[in-house]
Amino acid sequence: MTTLYTGGRIHGGDLGGGLGGAATALAVEDGVITWVGTTADAPPAAATVELAGALVAPAFVDAHVHATSAGLLRTGLDLTGAGSLGDVLDAVRDRVRAEPGVLATGHGWDETRWPENRPPTRAELDAVAGATPVYLTRVDAHSALVSTALVDLAPATLTAAGWSDERPLTRDAHHHVRGAARDSITAEARRAAQLSFLRHAASMGVACVHECGGPDLAGAEDFRELLARSGPLPRVVGYWGAFGARPPGARGLAGDLLVDGALGSRTAALREPYADAPETTGARYLDAERIAEHLVACSEAGVQAGFHVIGDDAVGAVVAGFRLAEKVVGEQALGAVRHRLEHLEMITEEQAAELARFRVVASVQPRFDAEWGGRDGMYAQRLGADRAAGLNPLAMLAASGLTLAFGSDAPITPVDPWATVRAAVEHRTPGAGLTFDDAFAAHTAGGWVAAGETGGTLEAGAPATFAVWRGETCVRTVLDGDTIYRGESEGAE
Predict the structure, then answer these.
(1) CATH number of the domain located at residue range(s) 67-183 in this protein
(2) Of 7, 306, 414, 453, which residue is most buried, by most CB within 10 angstroms?
(3) For the chain, what are the domain ranges?
(4) What is the tens place of the pLDDT at every residue in 114-136?
């Protein structure tokens, strides 16, 4: 059956020139676009959708999400707006009073924006939590505030790397308490969180998300359930951040396979110490040899490999790992499967050019710069303003030949594709931003390339995957011809 979308402004992927365009209609049959042109020349159709002047453009792809965690943020404690240490303690106190003894989860606190410039101690958290387990991740999700009641559920935490009596937990200690918190979440709550997140993504014009799962994140059961979801929802491309066997349905052994941590939690691996903590250079979890082994194994199996990499020491280890892997499998085999690197915030022009030679995909998050860049942001606090100015060099990455794929890293930043595009264009470091067209392409076609698929254009023969917009409000999202979201304000059908 042919469906005709008519009376809109159809854009094939190049949105420059103020979002103008000549095409006003497109026809869809069996999930494929069969025709694009003017309404007057439209072919006959069994069904018609009147667009009433709305913009139709390729749907967005969010190339890095954590679906269940992002969904839980919608039902747990959203601490992204907390303006002080006291705000966090008040939120925990209120939740514990409402649901005593039930795990209280939350996310998004950022002490660098508070007048105290420090997070609560465990004693302060225990004073309001009592016997209720509490798990509150920092905005970068690489450290967490936890109550003693939660630590008691994960006794291995006490002897693990990253343990502290006073400070937020990091490294292995964080993994242990995260596992205990995860085990306390019911299967029903987990499934509801997934569904809530996916429906929200569809309402934002997102037709595909790349889930970055792993054994130390949401776990294998969560990953299987997410990939098995069906119905009018965005497509989920799953990446499993681990070595060894690839779970059924996983696109690759990639995503958040950690080479290091995050700058906000001071676990990103640096060549020089943190400016605000000169006693540490962060944490590097993998060396070049282990990185190379994974690249070789995945290249030989024809499977995408990939790593979470942020700090300049970690980037150096990854580049060295690619060089070692090249000696084993060669440049062609190494580049054939388009290995991925997530975040890639501290990278030189020479390193970018070398990674481009191996056809690496840079899965990056422009809103990191919008949130924490600039001469007075968190990056500048952690690194000093001069060092921070070189972070997230989007223009340089694109010029090097790397394929860019944009994501939110939800729940780290919200799923809001237009805000992501703006952040890429309006980079806080002069000269580091992209053109509008390049930023839009990175959030549409780039995501499909990153997953080894085609998409991101609206032309005859292309998948019928697009979103319909009135301003920046999505009124319909279509995936392979099927409507996965329809807003109340959309025109007649």
Answers:
(1) 3.10.310.70
(2) 306
(3) 2-59+458-486, 67-183, 193-450
(4) 999 999 999 999 999 999 999 99
